[in-house]
Amino acid sequence: MGQRAGRPKSSRTFKLEGYQTMTAEADEENGTEDALEKRKKMLQAICGMADLRNGAVGLYNIGLSCCLNSLLQVFFMNRHFTMILRRIKVPFDPTEQKASIPYQMLLLLEQMQQSKRKSVHPVDLARCLSIHNVKFLVLYDASHLFLILWNLIKDQITNVDLAERLTVLYTIRLQEHLVCQKCSTETKNASNMLMLPLPLFDSDFRLVRTLEDSLCCFFAPEQLTDENACHCEECEMKMPCLRSMKVMHLPQTLMLHLKRFCCKEGSHTRKIRHSLAFPQSLDFSQILTSEQYYPDAQEEVSWDDVKCTYGRASLRWGETAYILVYMKKNGGKL
Ligand code: ZN
User: Fold this and answer.
1) Ligand 1: centre distance to CA 192 (Å)
2) Do both 136 and 221 map to the same domain?
3) d(Cα 242, Cα 286) in Å, to the nearest integer?
4) Has residue 234 been placed in a domain?
5) What is the CA(5)–ligand 1 centre distance, in A?
6) Ligand 1 centroid vs 230 CA: distance in angstroms?
7) Does residue 148 contact residue 231 with C-beta atoms inside 8 Å?
8) What's the helix, strand, coil split of the chain in %, to 5?
9) How many A from CA of 241 to the centre of ligand 1?
10) Overall number of domains in the chain
């Protein structure tokens, strides 16, 4: 499988970090009016540079809310996110308003932009979150809190189109390939993620030093044996499998989670503090192989994919074609 040859011509480079590059270029012009105007236009042109760049103030830490504050600022920095937030339907009832996280986030964003103070207190949003069992005076793992927040926001956006936009903005589409080590039967499973959980150790438990190496570890083929073995439809039992992951689509906003809390000592979880370098821009086509990186190729089906629907007695009905459609080509040949 996977005969699609060569890498796609267009690669996706994430522009979150593009701001730093452009800032450096603008700084070289020593802050003249033209340079400042140019810089402003460049900032506006960069995907994801949003409302907080336009003179918003900061957030006070209220009861260990530093992790929440950081996440809020990351959300508010993302123009694609704030465009969704600004289009939500405002709840009519005051009680509903107090319980609506998207609405309270919108109010907080407005406060941050209009306040004359140094910072604002995210008290109303904190109260709103506590209604939904997100407690304060509790230390959260940032990735865990991001997922809680994201799910609450999405669930509370009543406009279906906006909720879908939020999903598209953050969803990473992957494909898992499992190959039975006995009969070579291949199984493909689609998988959606909001964050890639990236390891800080390679398969030999050596520390990974760069983000690129961590991504390579995440996408490296892995032997699944013993208790990790997978059910094979052909063998009709659990069999050792070779598992590999492929990128099918990268979203506008890519969230990467460095697993710095994966090392347990007794009942304690220790933070892994070693240095892991990450680049200013990230180009997956330069990191992963053409077998691992199929950006936006989910609409394309190879002939080998089609041949999987020939059918076998052991396969479930859903995997077997029963209607065939042929389209006439030029010359009348089907
Ligand atoms: Zn098998």
Assistant:
1) 26
2) no
3) 24
4) yes
5) 27
6) 9
7) no
8) 40, 15, 45
9) 8
10) 2
Same domain, 206 and 120: no
Centroid of ligand 1 to alpha carbon of 148 (angstroms): 38
For residue 60, count other CB atoms closer than 10 A to its CB: 15
CATH number at residue 258: 3.90.70.10
**Are 76 and 51 within 8 A, CB to CB?**
yes
Q: pTM for the complete prediction?
A: 0.73
Q: Provide block-wise average pLDDT over 10 residues at a time, the chain (334 residues).
A: 34 32 32 58 44 72 80 88 92 93 93 87 91 82 89 95 94 92 91 91 90 93 92 91 92 87 64 82 86 73 71 58 68 58
3-state secondary structure of 283: strand
Q: Which of 295, 315, 189, 175 is nearest to 245 (CA)?
A: 175
Tokens of 332: 């009348």
- Same domain flag for 51 and 158: yes
Q: 143 with 159, same domain?
A: yes
> CA distances (Å), 180 to each of 189, 218, 318, 320, in order?
14, 20, 20, 19
Tokens of 35: 């340079």
Q: What is the DSSP letter of 89?
A: P
Same domain, residue pair 158 and 87: yes
Radius of gyration of the chain from its Cα atoms, rounded to whole angstroms = 24
Does 10 fall in a domain?
A: no
Q: How far is the CA of 73 from the centre of ligand 1 (A)?
A: 49
Domain that holds residue 152: 19-166
Measure 186 CA to ligand 1 centroid, in angstroms: 8
Phi, psi of 90 (to 5 degrees): -75, 125
